[in-house]
Design goal:
37% of the residues lie in helices and 15% in strands. It is of the alpha/beta class and 390 residues long. The protein has a 7-stranded mixed sheet, sandwiched between helices. A 5-stranded mixed sheet has the order 1-11-12-10-9.
Length: 390
C-alpha cells in the first residue's frame, strides 16, 4: 500500500513528533492528573508540570508574566473567552468578512444582546486594508478581531498596522493566531496584540483538547469575565470565583496530559530549529503554488506573493466539487487534503466558494518535496477528467 501523503495540517497536524506521543502515553503513569497547590505529591507534581508549560509558552511568545497565559480547551474556547468575556451591550466590534466561525458565531450571539459588529471586506488577494479597518472604528469600539492568517487561503493579514491604528483610539485587539503560532516566529509585542488566541493541535504540534489565550498588559482581568466558575488549582474557602491569574479563568480539572504534551511539542519545535522548519514550510508552499498554477482548470484562491501567505493553500478545480476531489485523492492516490467550508462559511462566501467551499492543501513538518510533486501530478490528472460536479 502506498505511503499516506498528509496535507491537512491546517485542520490538525499529523503525525505528531514522537516525544508528544511518548508524553501522552507516560504522563498518567506518573501523575494524578488533578493539579492542586498545595496537595499530595502526585497533585503537586501535576500542577508543577502544567506551570512549566505555562512558563515555556510565555517565553515562546515573549510574555513577561506567565500568569497571563491561560489554558483553554481549544482555540475556539480561547476566542469565546476573549469575545464573550470582554463584550457587553453597547459595545462595538470591528472584524473582517473572512473570519473563522469561532469568531463569527459568538459575535452573532452577542448581537442579540446589544453588541454591534462591522465586518470589513477584503481585496481580491484576501487581504484587508488597515485603513478600512480604521475607518470602521467608532467611539464605542471595544474590540478589533483579526485572524493573523486566513484558515482558508493562508493570507497573512497586516495585523501590526491594524493594531497600531486601533490603539490610537484605545481599542483592544484580539488576534486569532491558530494558523500562525508554530509557523511564523513572533511575540505578543511583535503583533501589537492585546489578546492572542492559539490552538494547540495545529502548527504547535500538540494534541487535541488544548488551546491558549494570552492576555497582554492592556487587558484588565477585572474587565474580562470568566466563562466558567468552580474549583481551581488553589483551593481557597471563598464563595466567589478567584480574581487572581490564571485561576480566574481555569476552573475545573484541566486537560493536564494534553497540556504537558503540548509543552513537549513546543520544546521539540525549539530544539529542531523553529525558524528552519518555518522556512522549509514556506518553500514547500511555494513549490505547491508554482505547480498548481500551471494546471488548466485550477483556480488558486491564496495570495500569489509568498511573503503574504502561510503554508495554507486553497483552490478550486473546474468540474469538481471540493469534497469529491478530496475523496478521490484519498481513495485513489492516498493523499489527504481538506475540503469544504473549513469552519469559515462567511470567508468562503466572500471568496466566491460557497456553498461547496474549497480544496485546502497544507503541508506539515513531515512533508517532502516528493509529496508536493505527487499532489501536483494527482490534481493535474483529475483536472483532465470529465466533470463530476453538480
Amino acid at each position: 500500500m502506498a505511503v499516506l501523503t498528509y496535507l491537512d495540517n491546517a485542520t490538525t497536524s499529523w503525525p505528531k513528533p514522537e516525544v508528544v506521543i511518548r508524553t501522552l502515553g507516560t504522563f498518567l503513569e506518573r501523575a494524578s492528573g488533578v493539579p492542586l497547590r498545595p496537595g499530595n505529591r502526585l497533585a503537586t507534581e501535576t500542577w508543577e508540570a502544567i506551570e512549566r508549560v505555562r512558563e515555556r509558552l510565555a517565553a515562546f511568545f515573549g510574555v513577561p508574566d506567565p500568569r497571563r497565559v491561560l489554558f483553554t480547551a481549544s482555540g475556539t474556547d480561547a476566542l469565546n473567552l476573549a469575545i464573550k468575556g470582554l463584550l457587553g451591550p453597547g459595545d462595538h466590534v470591528v472584524t473582517t468578512a473572512i473570519e473563522h466561525d469561532a469568531v463569527r458565531r459568538p459575535l452573532r450571539t452577542l448581537e442579540l444582546f446589544g453588541v454591534t459588529t462591522t465586518r470589513v471586506g477584503v481585496g481580491p488577494d484576501g487581504l484587508v486594508d488597515p485603513v478600512d479597518m480604521q475607518r470602521a472604528l467608532r467611539p464605542n469600539t471595544r474590540l478589533v478581531i483579526i485572524g493573523h492568517a486566513s484558515n482558508v487561503t493562508g493570507a497573512l493579514q497586516p495585523v501590526v498596522e491594524i493594531a497600531n491604528r486601533a490603539h490610537v483610539q484605545g481599542t483592544l485587539v484580539l488576534v486569532n493566531a491558530a494558523q500562525t503560532a508554530g509557523v511564523i516566529p513572533f511575540t505578543l509585542d511583535d503583533l501589537g496584540a492585546d489578546l492572542l488566541a492559539l490552538s494547540g493541535h495545529k502548527w504547535l504540534l500538540g494534541p487535541p483538547g488544548t488551546g491558549v489565550l494570552v492576555l497582554g498588559p492592556r487587558v484588565d482581568p477585572s474587565e474580562l469575565a470568566p466563562l466558567r466558575e468552580g474549583a481551581t488549582a488553589r483551593d481557597l474557602p471563598d464563595i466567589t470565583q478567584l480574581w487572581s491569574l490564571p485561576e480566574r479563568y481555569e476552573a475545573g480539572t484541566p486537560n493536564a496530559v494534553g497540556i504537558v504534551a503540548l509543552g513537549a511539542a513546543l520544546e521539540w519545535l525549539v530544539q529542531e530549529g523553529f525558524t528552519t522548519l518555518s522556512a522549509r514550510l514556506r518553500r514547500l508552499a511555494d513549490r505547491l503554488v508554482a505547480g498548481l498554477e500551471t494546471i488548466p482548470g485550477v483556480r488558486l484562491l491564496s495570495p500569489s506573493d509568498p511573503p503574504r501567505r502561510v503554508a495554507v493553500i486553497s483552490c478550486l478545480v473546474s468540474g469538481w466539487r471540493p469534497v469529491d476531489l478530496a475523496s478521490v485523492l484519498e481513495k485513489t492516490y492516498r493523499i489527504v487534503v481538506g475540503a469544504g467550508l473549513h469552519g469559515a462559511s462567511e470567508a468562503c462566501r466572500t471568496l466566491g466558494a460557497y456553498p461547496h467551499g474549497t480544496v485546502r492543501l497544507s503541508p506539515g513538518w513531515c512533508t517532502t518535496e516528493e509529496d508536493i510533486d505527487r499532489v501536483i501530478l494527482a490534481v493535474a490528472e483529475l483536472a483532465r477528467t470529465p466533470s463530476r460536479a453538480d
